[in-house]
Amino acid sequence: MIYIDPPYNTGKDFIYKDSFKKNLFEYEKDGGQRNKDGARLVSNPETSGRFHSDWLSMMLPRLKLARNLLANNGVIFISIDDGEVANLRKLCDETFGENNFISQIIWHNSSRVSDYIAIEHEYVLVYAKNISFLESWRIKRKESEDILSGIKKIRKGRGSVEDGIKFIKQKIEYYRKKDKENKTKLYSWLSNYVNIDEDWQVYYPVDLTGEGAGPPRKFGGKLIPAPEGRHWMGQDYIDQLFEEGRIVYRNDRAYRKLYIQESEDNLKSIVTIPTRRGSEYLKGLLGKDIFDKPKPYDLVKHFAKFALGDCDIALDFFAGSATTAHAVMQLNAEDGGNRRFVMVQLPEICNEESEASKAGYKTISDIAKERIRRTGEEIVNEEHDSSRNCDVGFRVLKVDTSNMKDVYYTPDQTDQENLANLVDNIKSDRTHEDLLFQVLIDWGVDLALPISNEVIQNKKIFFVDGNVLIACFETSVTEELVKELADRKPERVVFRNGGFVSDSVKINAEQIFKQLSPRTDIKVI
């Protein structure tokens, strides 16, 4: 599941680092549309001819990438207001396909006055990666077993609907215990209300006609003329109802099988959660009102209940104060699930005059991290049973350049004085942890796996998820250490290119693993 709350296009300036659009870069920089770091500075007044285009240009590449990241049964939820909802629908239709549109949910959240009308809602667009994989989202129905299954017009005019349902239910329960003769009496008595088959499935009268004359239709293979002055619905529609076992034709009347719509198990098109709930909760959690209009975490949790399996991943690449992370952690705590989250947020600097800056938060990312920490503390400290998931750990990763030194010269351009700089191919300011995570990414290993370390022969060795990966980035690695690591029989092992005590040890390392742990995948960086 992806949930995003992108910046609404309100006519104010918004800044984003756009790595997708490289053309016209120098032009935009010279014209003051980019700062020295490449962040695009979008002056976006409503009078601009590109008022909508600038915002959509920011959204389109991100939505395309989001679609690629979704699982086949994945779903994306996008919060938006009236300003761009129509344009965003078109953008999502182009990106995800019109056939993968699920809903435009009305989020009834507040009451604010515009120039002409009191606005009490925003929207959440919902699209699937591939709607054919969303069978679990279909409205669930079950066959009724008795008359209590929702017929609201029974005994109309003879007391309240509730009284009528209660009365007829009592009759059915009474006659179900009797013999066939009494069951026949029951059929006769209820004939004006319902039709009940031998398996006690309930059918209620349905009018499948409209005004005006029309041809006969086949009901279960029997050609039936329409009542005078009426016409039957289309034959294809009637055939479909028969094929699905949803109608019968008895006693010169059409009856439709009654189902109960289990609406509590399905997402509704209108969600009522006040916006202020998000601000009130975050203020209570962090002690100050330091973030402008965060989304209520229970809004995202509501969506996550429907879109996420017990072990699925939620992504939010406009993370803000990490509302989505909060929602996932809270949902796990409530039902014992093991869902995970990925939050992406630019390290946007907080205004020096803002309450966030005064409270010690330098960037929006700092606010998000602190919220996740405090939410985790609340979950752990709450009274809970053993079935609750109180794993509230998280990792913070920052996008950076490669750990490897940049090579600018070919061998014939390198002089004797520069040779010493080429002995080690790793940048001097990088830690062993930096190297480890680059290896995890290169190898496609889950970044959330547990990591431990041991000191073996005075060298720090990393162990990822037990023996999934062993990493040694120390220098002066000996054959004895290589043999000890090979005895652990890891799935993968990685060493530093310049980390071996000699070239012979580096050459022998591969042979040692072939002998002691032939299934191990070896990597040298």
Describe the structure.
This protein is α+β, with helices and mostly antiparallel strands and 525 residues long. Helices cover 31% and strands 20% of the residues. The strands form eight sheets. It has a five-stranded mixed sheet with strand order 1-4-6-5-17, with helices on both faces. Strands 20-21-22-23-24 form a five-stranded mixed sheet, with helices on one face. The chain is elongated, with a radius of gyration of 33 Å. Residues 20-24 and 142-159 have low confidence and may be disordered.
Q: Looking at the structure, what is the overall shape?
A: elongated
Oligomeric form of this entry?
single chain
**Number of beta strands:** 24
Strand-residue proportion? 15-25%
Note poorly predicted spans.
20-24, 142-159
The Rg value, from CA coordinates, equals 33 Å
Mean pLDDT: 81
| Main sheet: strand order | 1-4-6-5-17
Please give the alpha-carbon distance between the first and last residues. Answer: 35 Å
List the helices and strands and how they pair.
Elements: E1 2-4, E2 14-16, H1 25-30, E3 40-42, H2 51-69, E4 75-80, H3 85-96, E5 101-113, E6 118-128, E7 141-143, H4 161-176, H5 180-190, E8 195-196, E9 202-205, E10 209-211, E11 217-219, E12 222-224, E13 230-232, H6 235-243, E14 247-250, E15 253-257, E16 259-261, E17 270-272, H7 276-286, H8 297-307, E18 313-316, H9 323-335, E19 340-343, H10 355-358, H11 364-381, H12 432-443, E20 451-456, E21 459-464, E22 469-472, H13 479-487, E23 492-495, H14 503-516, E24 521-524
Parallel strand pairs: 1-4, 5-17, 18-19, 22-23, 23-24
Antiparallel strand pairs: 2-3, 4-6, 5-6, 7-16, 8-9, 9-15, 10-13, 11-12, 14-15, 20-21, 21-22
